[in-house]
Amino acid sequence: MRTPVVAGNWKMYKTVTEARHMVSEMVPGLQGIKGVEKVLCPPFTALLAVSALLEGTDIGLGAQNMHWDNAGAYTGEVSPLMVAEICQYIILGHSERRMYFMETDTNVKRKIQAALVHGLTPIVCVGETLEENETGRTREVVSRQIKQGLVDLSFEEEGLSGFNVIIAYEPVWAIGTGRAATAEGANAVIARIVRPALAELFGQNGAQSIRVLYGGSVNSGNAAEFFAQPDIDGALVGGASLKVGEFIQITQSAAL
Q: Do 149 and 122 contact (CB within 8 A), yes or no?
């Protein structure tokens, strides 16, 4: 059985002071929830402060992006060495990175490989735009993002297993719009497109061992419906992860 994951992507919200306050309120509620992997992904500036508050808990910490090189003349970037010193997880290939910062599948692949080398668990985001969805290109786009992002990886390599790569299917048209995909529709994409693409790379056993999350306007009102689907293993939560009660309720809905 795949252990569900609920990760909160705070995006560019919360100062250090605000982050400390919110996490202090959130930790007691999250600590009591078992049977689910819990991850908070604040902005870079708040990582150290949140890390201190999570020490001794079973709540993981993730960053929202990183460069693939360990060091270099890349003003404004953060290296995998810097992230791995504090975090256990890293969000990679988010649609906002692809759209606003022109990230390519090749660059996402480089980041995934760097994350694994440094012991980070990448949460790899894939998903189609509204136009791609309406023109019947969901399979083409999602399959390409998975195959080009994870090509050349092997579970037989030292240190790799099915549990240290997480996929987040996030239809771009559902992110921050309040227009979530239906639970059945999201599950169908994961079962018929995401897992077959993973199977081409890693075989059926590998594909079935990888957790696949749903992301896109997840909230406490619809989370349980998504988590009831057989191929959805949790959620990458955006706006609702900034509300203490909402995020705790969503996490509770995913608990085994």
A: no
Residue 195 φ then ψ, to 5°: -65, -40
Cα–Cα distance, 252 to 30 (Å, whole number): 8
Query: CA 33, CA 231: separation in Å to the nearest integer?
Result: 22
237, two tokens:
């939560």
Under 8 Å CB-to-CB from 145, ≥6 apart: which residues?
Answer: 93, 105, 108, 126, 127
Separation of alpha carbons 155 and 206, rounded Å: 8
Contact between 242 and 250 (Cβ < 8 Å): no
Write out the two tokens for 22: 């919110």
The pair of structure tokens assigned to 125 is: 């985001």
Q: How far is CA 208 from CA 10, 161, 167, 191, 229, in A?
A: 29, 12, 12, 10, 14
What is the tens place of the pLDDT at every residue in 195-212?
Answer: 999 999 999 998 999 999
Inter-residue contact 68 to 110 (CB < 8 Å): yes
Close Cβ partners of 206 (under 8 Å, ≥ 6 residues apart) = 155, 162, 198, 199
Point out the residues that are catalytic. Answer: 94, 170
Query: What are the residue ranges in the chain where pLDDT is below 70?
Result: 154-163
Distance CA 107, CA 109 (A): 5
For the chain, what is the total number of helices (H) and then of strands (E)? 11, 8
Domains contained in the chain, CATH given = 5-13+28-254 (3.20.20.70)
Burial per residue of 85-122, b for 16 or more beta-carbon CB atoms within 10 angstroms, e otherwise:
eebbbbbbbbbbbbeeeebebebbbbbbbbbbebebbb
* pLDDT tens digit sequence for 62-98: 999 999 999 999 999 999 999 999 999 999 999 999 9
